[in-house]
Amino acid sequence: xxxMRNGPHRWDMRMKRLILALAILFxxxxxxxxxxxxxxxxxxxxxxxxxxxxxxxxxxxxxQCLRTNASLISAECSQxxxxxxx
Length: 86
Fold this sequence. Notes:
single chain; mainly alpha
């Protein structure tokens, strides 16, 4: 066990706080990602069907297809695609 000047209890509390802070940041990031995915699906569904119907999902192929057709996709899909880059 690692002993610090103020004893092992203080070290344990610091580690617990650090782990809690990291968990909160991870959950917030995950929620943001989920919202971006939902917006992407909502706004790009029609464009995916129209321009990428022959593309098989996986390895970012659908995103690449939309980027290839960027001048043709709807403004809403284009905005959702920009959010996915962040």
